[in-house]
Design a protein that fits this description.
There is one protein chain. The protein is of the alpha/beta class. It has helices at about 5-15, 20-25, 30-45, 60-85, 105-115, 130-135, 165-170, 215-225, 235-245, 270-290, and strands at about 50, 55, 90-95, 120-125, 140, 150-160, 160-165, 185-190, 195-200, 205, 210-215, 230, 245-250, 260-265. The strands form 4 sheets. A 5-stranded mixed beta sheet has the order 4-3-5-14-6. The longest helix is centred in the N-terminal third of the chain and has 25 residues, at about 60-85.
């Protein structure tokens, strides 16, 4: 298998098309196309779906890309290790995290202090991603993950907390039972198509929310102002619960546990950069005691 052709195939998939790959790598489109065609002919399979709108790998192409990209990254990491005289890891990591996972930015800052020669490309999104098609080395995702093409490493479990401010009681009073929540001003984290309900102690309670937003920081601000009852991630709520600015509601009927996971394509072909990041994240969460007593 021609390594040069394989590299050009990886470039085209990573940049979702010949034109963008050509621009990024400064390689003529004709050269990229010829090499990919030669690779397909050599393997006897079609690797790319070519339409007028987009280029994407076939099922076979996605499998090849997953392993080829890791292998080429390993080669590049080896080259960089030889170049880097002081022996520190050097290169670029492509990461994805949910936009509302604010504490992870603190972790990333600590990671870059420990690995100053590793550059980060960070994509914040709540949507489900394809690590191969999106060119992501490691993703942080919340919840149960069903995937056959990636490995999920659970970091911990935690529960969201239902909170309100003392000022809320003065304005609106408080529900005595979760089934009354629909009659009180509430704010929910929600994407456009989510059902609006809270699951407390295994039961779903429908809501008529005053506000729906995919930003926990905004919900926290509204709760602190006494405007809404809302659910918050425990790390976001903790300082306000400790200070008394927020109070827990229905703590005897908790939200279900959620898992925090690191998602990566393959353990066998994990690059030294990805491995360093994963090991650092696991150790950091353990050392800082994140999520302890929050389940």
């Amino acid at each position: 298998m021609n390594l040069n052709s394989l590299n050009m195939f990886v470039l085209v998939v990573r940049h979702a098309g010949f034109s963008e790959a050509s621009r990024k790598a400064n390689i003529p489109v004709a050269t990229l196309s010829r090499n990919v065609n030669e690779l397909e002919a050599q393997l006897g399979i079609r690797l790319l779906e070519r339409t007028t709108r987009q280029i994407r790998p076939t099922r076979e192409g996605a499998v090849l890309y997953q392993f080829a990209a890791r292998g080429l990254d390993e080669i590049d990491a080896g080259r960089l290790a030889l170049i880097d005289a002081d022996g520190q890891l050097k290169g670029r990591l492509r990461l994805s995290i949910p936009g509302n996972l604010s504490f992870w930015w603190v972790l990333l800052r600590a990671f870059q202090r420990g690995y100053p020669n590793i550059s980060l490309d960070i994509f914040t999104t709540e949507r489900r991603i394809d690590l191969v098609e999106d060119g992501i080395d490691v993703a942080v995702r919340i919840g149960d993950l069903k995937t056959q093409t990636a490995i999920a490493r659970k970091i911990t479990e935690y529960r969201h907390v239902l909170v309100y401010a003392p000022a809320y009681v003065e304005k609106h009073g408080l529900p005595r039972h979760p089934k009354q929540l629909a009659a009180f001003p509430c704010g929910v984290w929600s994407s456009e198509h989510d059902n609006v309900s809270w699951n407390l102690a295994g039961k779903d309670y429908a809501l008529e929310p005053q506000v729906r937003v995919n930003d926990y920081a905004h919900l926290c601000m509204l709760a602190l102002g006494g405007d809404i009852i809302t659910e918050l991630p425990p790390l976001l709520a903790k300082p306000y619960l400790d200070s008394g600015e927020l109070l827990p509601l229905f703590s005897d009927q908790p939200f279900p546990r959620q898992s925090l996971n690191l998602l990566y394509p393959s353990r066998k072909y994990l690059s030294p950069l990805s491995r360093a990041y994963i090991d650092f994240a696991l150790e950091y969460c353990k050392r800082e005691g994140l999520f302890l007593n929050m389940v």
